[in-house]
Design goal:
The chain is of the alpha/beta class and about 250 residues long. It has a single domain, classed as Rossmann fold, CATH 3.40.50. It is about 35% helix and about 25% strand. It has seven helices and eight strands. Helix 3 links the parallel strand 1 and strand 2. The protein is globular.
């Protein structure tokens, strides 16, 4: 989980411990991580759109990431890693909680997927660079967001694609993502700390400081009868793609 000898330790130990305790139930679609199973298809829809836009020559292929290396930072038990592997990528998943990595590796093996999983801070792992880097619902749990994004950017190969998502810091997210969601059990209590959310404007500035520029952004919204979906409404949660600034 990182230590004092590793530079840029950005993940709060208590955050890693919180999610580590949920590791054994991570793949249960009706368990405490049910909300992740509901949002994951929405995230993957954006990720596929971003892949197609970034590598248009591979758009018609069933495995558009064939021959490409992908890294998922804060991978949990592998909910994003596994679909990336099915899209053809050579996938590495990194998480600060060793319990999550163990759960991810066991599930991938059961699915017959060859995914490399590693426990630790991304800054302290000698893993090289990647064509695609994903990092979903992680930065809001990070102590030093600027240092973390520099570490993320360092893993992006020239011409690579970065995809990240996070809750927005708005009045609506405070009421719905923290208050209501925890009150009704949609997410485990303690999952979100509203003061750690960042606005899109703040995120864009942090990315620019790391040498990256946003190429697309969508909201992840919810409404009765439609559920979670990609939207122009960014008030609750947003997902974005970025590349190195030219």
């Amino acid at each position: 989980m990182g230590n004092a000898n590793i530079p840029n330790v950005t993940i709060r130990p208590e955050e890693a411990d919180f999610f580590a305790k949920l590791a054994r139930d991570w793949w249960n679609p009706k368990g405490p991580m049910a909300s992740l199973h509901q949002v994951n298809p929405v995230r993957m829809a954006f990720i596929r759109q971003a892949i197609d836009a970034h590598w248009p020559a591979a758009q018609a292929q069933g495995r558009p990431l064939a021959g490409k290396a992908a890294l998922d930072i804060g991978c949990g038990a592998g909910l994003v890693c596994e679909p990336l592997a099915r899209l053809g990528a050579n996938v590495t998943g990194v998480d600060a909680a060793a319990e999550n990595i163990a759960a991810a590796a066991a599930h991938a093996e059961g699915m017959g997927l060859d995914i490399r999983y590693m426990a630790g801070e991304v800054a302290g792992l000698d893993i090289g660079t990647f064509d695609l880097v994903t990092c979903v619902e992680v930065i809001e749990h990070v102590a030093d967001k600027s240092a973390f994004l520099r570490d993320v950017a360092a893993r992006l190969a020239p011409g690579g694609l970065l995809i990240m998502s996070t809750p927005n810091r708005t009045a609506a997210s405070r009421v719905l993502l923290v208050g209501a969601a925890e009150a009704v059990g949609y997410v485990p209590k303690g999952t979100h700390h509203w003061e750690d959310f960042i606005t899109l404007e703040e995120f864009e500035a942090l990315l620019a400081d790391a040498g990256l520029t946003i190429t697309a952004r969508r909201g992840i919204a919810w409404r009765p009868g439609k559920g979670l979906h990609l939207s122009d409404d960014l008030s609750l949660n947003y997902i974005l793609s970025a590349r190195r600034a030219s």
